[in-house]
Amino acid sequence: xxxxxxxxxxxxxxxxxxxxxxxxxxxxxxxxxxxxxxxxxxxxxxxxxxxxxxxxxxxxxxxxxxxxxxxxxxxxxxxxxxxxxxxxxxxxxxxxxxxxxxxxxxxxxxxxxxxxxxxxxxxxxxxxxxxxxxxxxxxxxxxxxxxxxxxxxxxxxxxxxxxxxxxxxxxxxxxxxxxxxxxxxxxxxxxxxxxxxxxxxxxxxxxxxxxxxxxxxxxxxxxxxxxxxxxxxxxxxxxxxxxxxxxxxxxxxxxxxxxxxxxxxxxxxxxxxxxxxxxxxxxxxxxxxxxxxxxxxxxxxxxxxxxxxxxxx
Length: 313
Fold this sequence. Notes:
By secondary structure, the protein is of the alpha+beta class. It folds into 3 domains: 2-29 and 159-193, no CATH class; 37-142, ARID DNA-binding domain (DNA polymerase, domain 1, Orthogonal Bundle); 201-308, DNA Binding (I), subunit A. 50% of the residues lie in helices and 11% in strands. It is built from 12 helices and 6 strands. The protein has helices spanning 14-35, 48-53, 55-69, 85-93, 98-103, 107-112, 123-142, 201-205, 218-229, 243-255, 263-275, 279-308, and strands at residues 2-6, 77-78, 81-82, 164-173, 176-183, 186-193. Strands 1-4-5-6 form a 4-stranded mixed beta sheet, covered by helices on one side. Helix 10 (243-255) crosses helix 12 (279-308). The longest helix has 30 residues, at 279-308. It is elongated. The chain starts with a strand and ends in a 5-residue tail after the last helix.
């Protein structure tokens, strides 16, 4: 597959091209060869209605289906439990199939039926990936009754060495680039991020990220706005911190030596650790946040009281 990209007016295209090539090597081409069988679809051996009613029949036909096509049969695990593919198949096909679910934006509705724990942040991705690899082609035969050569799996471009992928950098901002990619007949828009080495701990602790500021000058204007409204009085109480802020600061200091210059990686790691805390562990930090909030409220009342007195020093 050939890759070209039009240069930005300032000629800066290398970062975009290299990241685009990595995506092709690590995701698109591998995914297409893995998810698109080369053999024709086999004839269904059971009716859709019977498969919906009988989970054992479903598992038997699914296993045989993958064996005939020569595709990989592997059930994913979510939160330490094997994913119930029968239930997933029923939930998706009852809404018209995976393509209709995606178009109608009902994927979240499907995920909610499984009642995954909030701490399992990757559940949606894992379940969708499992459906595409394990159930999409099964759906074509046992739900739609299709025959012949399998079509491409949604979200997985067909591997074709003659395809030309072209890309343009539409805008550059502090956090990276806004890009457009032409893939066959599709035009895809997205953002490529990079994180400067000098991003401060405080910016992450406050939940800010330069990568969210799209468009030239946006980051600087917001910085000026924050500076404009920042308290000038040195005696004004320090703003309160949330439980997550305390957790972030504690772990940032611990992880920084191992992730030197990788601010985004540190933030993602801390977010992962926070999401995997038990309720009791998280409560410790939330109580710190509540105490600090009360401290700030008390100090602010005292500060305002002192400053409302004409002759207060």
